[in-house]
Each structure stands twice: as structure tokens, then as C-alpha cells.
Amino acid sequence: xxxxxxxxxxxxxxxxxxxxxxxxxxxxxxxxxxxxxxxxxxxxxxxxxxxxxxxxxxxxxxxxxxxxxxxxxxxxxxxxxxxxxxxxxxxxxxxxxxxxxxxxxxxxxxxxxxxxxxxxxxxxxxxxxxxxxxxxxxxxxxxxxxxxxxxxxxxxxxxxxxxxxxxxxxxxxxxxxxxxxxxxxxxxxxxxxxxxxxxxxxxxxxxxxxxxxxxxxxxxxxxxxxxxxxxxxxxxxxxxxxxxxxxxxxxxxxxxxxxxxxxxxxxxxxxxxxxxxxxxxxxxxxxxxxxxxxxxxxxxxxxxxxxxxxxxxxxxxxxxxxxxxxxxxxxxxxxxxxxxxxxxxxxxxxxxxxxxxxxxxxxxxxxxxxxxxxxxxxxxxxxxxx
Amino acid sequence: xxxxxxxxxxxxxxxxxxxxxxxxxxxxxxxxxxxxxxxxxxxxxxxxxxxxxxxxxxxxxxxxxxxxxxxxxxxxxxxxxxxxxxxxxxxxxxxxxxx
Lengths: 386, 99
Fold this sequence. Notes:
The complex is a heterodimer.
Chain A: H1 8-15, E1 23-27, H2 53-66, E2 70-74, H3 84-93, E3 97-102, H4 109-116, E4 121-126, H5 132-139, H6 143-156, E5 163-168, H7 176-185, E6 189-194, H8 201-208, H9 212-223, E7 256-259, E8 264-266, E9 277-280, H10 286-293, H11 295-300, H12 315-318, H13 323-328, H14 344-350
Parallel strand pairs in A: 1-2, 1-7, 2-3, 3-4, 4-5, 5-6
Antiparallel strand pairs in A: 7-8, 8-9
Chain B: E1 19-21, E2 25-30, E3 33-38, E4 44-47, H1 50-58, H2 65-72, H3 78-90, E5 94-96
Antiparallel strand pairs in B: 1-5, 2-3, 3-4
């Protein structure tokens, strides 16, 4: 009967889309003072066309009307936006809860005290390794120390349980226990998310994504630790057996979407590409009309072909995996995930054609328009073979 | 930051007492029923029928949960709605109404 978290019929309802998103990601700026190798939005430079403070507040008003209970704010580095605190205060004041991701570089003791004074606010500090060496190889020199200072500042301000957010890679898989210990030391929650081959990670993915053996290790590690948050991002691992906690479906355009810094609405935070652009919040009717009437979202909410996965006994568990992972590795959208736990992705990768070249990046450039180098993971040792 | 007291468990459900939609919870109607979001513990709960969503929203108008169920739920389904309310009490979507 009624109530509680999702058995199959409800999951079916979600694949047909809801009246408003459950989980909306809103990237406030493409400006970033770091240049992480796996940045899913290829951030670096502010876009001159970014939403004005008034436009941003108008989005909050729309979310109130749509009863979107909370937003995930990111970037770029959201704290670089001059109106960051005004906007966040405005949102939580209107009962739109905010969970925001930051690299922590601007989270001073004073900022930490300001954040601690706000209700309905969660903070996620990103690190991608448990040591300066492993973290800084991905996120840049000094970024680990900056993130730890931000955590210290939140703790000193009495913020309460914040989140330590980690993208799982081949290189940090062996550090999961150490990362959990860092979170524990602050009374924080550990949040692990899946590396997608999106943005700048189009290039680094081959070297960064976990091996098949590591994926199995991760699956069991997560099953044993239900307190570790995952943002539903490892649902492709549910094909290994018992489903992981969460909805275990691709919510793109159905229950999730992305509003980017210039107001473009994409099906999910990991598919910043014209093919997945649903509309722009500056068009008449704003975000609600994009959500309800976009042709792209209508097609995502319609019946989907299982394609090459139709005959696989695990299809009900993983639903073919992540659309973004397939798209950016050049795989057909109606086939296996590149990290399919049954190995079907590896065969598909071997047979794939051209990978999409994204033209939408905001990576920092030199005065000739050439992208500046990001800290590529050349210092990584080879993963242990099992 | 967290709202004080949000992480303690919900009250044991007693059908003869007065209940209400927890003031920290917002409901959003959907075709399948409703989403319930608890601003304190940040939990999202799915109410899997519109009838249940209506019952939860109306609890406060009745002297007890039993009276609300008696007025709004057909006889053959009352036991399952009582169980549903008990689970919602446990997840703090509804709470005791000290009026």
C-alpha cells in the first residue's frame, strides 16, 4: 500500500516525469579559481551572459511556485558570484533549501559563521583524494589544504554536519576509508559520486575511471555503509545484485535537470551539450515552461528503447546506466553503459565511432584563445592489478 | 545547517490521538500521489496515492486519526491506511497535534 521509498510502480511513474523536478542542479557561474581535470562543466571563465541577480531571484520565485523543495547549487565556484550570499539567503528565506558545492577556497571563518546562521542550508566541500598529493593531482596545487581549512572553519563556526564530497576515481579508490575518516573527524557525512566523462573529463576519463574490479569493491563498500551519500549516482552498480539506496534510475529531464549560469536548461548536470539543451529560462514563461513543455523532456519522458540491453537479465536493475556516460564516450544511448558491470561496455567502447567534441567549455584560455593546461594526472601510479 | 531536533525519531503512532501534517513538512501533489519533504531532516517521502495525500492534509480537521480515516477512507481499506499513517509518523511526516 501507500508510503515510503520506491517500489517498481512508483519508479515507473518517475520515468514518465513529474510536474516539477525533485532534484534541480543550478550552476551559478562558470568562473572558477581551480581547474580540476574532471570538471563536468569545463569551468574557469565567467560567461559575460550569466544571469543577473534579479534574474536569479526570479528563478527562486519560480521554484517556490513549483514547490521545488531544494536546489543543488554549484558552478564553477558558486562563492565567486558577488551576489552568492544574497541569493542563498533569499532562497532559504523563501523555503527553497540550498545544498551547495564549493572548493572551499573562499570559505573564510567569517563566511563560515554567516553560513552557520542560515537554516535549510547544506554545504558540500569537494576533495578528490585523502592526501594533498592524490587530491592536488586532480584539483590543483594547494586545493587540498584550502578544502581542509574550509572544513576547519565550518567546524569552528558550529555549522553542524556538512558533507565531504568526493568523485570516485581509479586513483582514490584505495583511499575511501581514509576519506571516510576525514569526514568522521568533523562529524561530517561522506558523499561519493560517479566520475562522468563530461566536460574536461571527456579527455581524462580513460585514465581516471575505476576499473571493473574497483567497481565491484566500491559496490560492496557502499552496501556496507548505508550512511554514505551517493546522490543516486552509482545506479549502474545495482546490476551486481541488491540495489543500492536511492531511486536507481536515470532522472534526466524526468525528475532532475540543470540550470546553467546563462539560464540554459539541460536534461542533467552531466550533459552540457546542445543535444540535451531543453530551453532557456529567459524565454517567455521561464523555467516552468521549459520543464513542462520542452520537446526534449517530452521525449525523455516517453518510452525508451532498451536497445542492445533488451536481452540482459540486469536491465531492470540498471536500466542501461547513465545517458551522459554513454554520450560522452561515443556509445549509443540505447545500449550499455561504458562501465557496465557485466563488461558489455568494454566491447562497445572497442567498437565505438567518433566521440562528441564539446564546444561549450569555459576553460581558462591564454591571450591567443588556447586553453590553459590543467593538472593532468601524469603523476598517477598504475592501479593495482587484481 | 541542521535544524535542532530534526534527527530524533518520530512518535509512535496512536490512531485514537490527534495528528497533523508536521509543520516542517511540505507536500507537493503529483499524479501518483504526493511528495512530502521534511525541511528538518531533509528527507523526501513519497505518498503513493492521492487519497493518502488528502488524508494527511486533512488530519488536523479531525479529533483523532481514527475519525479522519473513518470519514475519508472506505471501510475495506482502513487497515492499510492506518499502517500508512504509522509509517508516516515514524518518518515524522505527521506528528502529534497538541491542540
